[in-house]
TrEMBL record:
Highest taxon listed in the record's lineage: Bacteria
Species: Leptospira interrogans str. 2006001854
Keywords from the named record: Leucine-rich repeat, Repeat
UniProt cross-references to PROSITE patterns, sorted A to Z: LRR
A Pfam family per the record: LRR_1
InterPro entries found in the cross-reference section: Leu-rich_rpt, Leu-rich_rpt_typical-subtyp, LRR_dom_sf, LRR_domain-containing
Record flagged with keyword Repeat: yes
Name of this protein: Leucine rich repeat protein
Keyword Ubl conjugation attached: no
CC annotations in GO: cytoplasm
SMART domains tied to this protein: LRR_TYP
Length: 101
């Protein structure tokens, strides 16, 4: 599901009902937090949160055991939490590319 470039400020808790979702693209929105419902997406393999206003990820993200790729490009606050995030998701490839403006 691609919801990129939509100026979203929140992700509804109802996201938890998309249990078969494998890819979720939320790039370039205005998200400041993710709902705990993200933890119910057990089949999620790709998650792109790049270019949002996130300051932390919910603890529930560690339940995403099938997650292969997590994109956190251009989110400096999360880059500073890189080791913590990698511990939560040891099997995922995590990208923290900084985009020069």
């Amino acid at each position: 599901m691609d919801l990129s470039n939509n100026q979203l400020t929140t992700l509804p808790n109802e996201i938890e009902f998309l249990k078969r979702l494998q890819e979720l693209y939320l790039r370039n929105n205005q998200l400041t937090a993710l709902s705990k419902g993200i933890g119910y997406l057990k089949k999620l393999q790709k998650l792109d949160l790049s270019r949002n206003q996130l300051t932390t990820l919910p603890k529930e993200i560690e339940t995403l055991k099938k997650l292969e790729e997590l994109f956190l490009d251009d989110i400096p606050v999360l880059k500073s939490q890189e080791k913590k995030i990698q511990k939560l998701l040891p099997k995922a490839q995590i990208d923290f590319i900084e985009i020069k403006k």
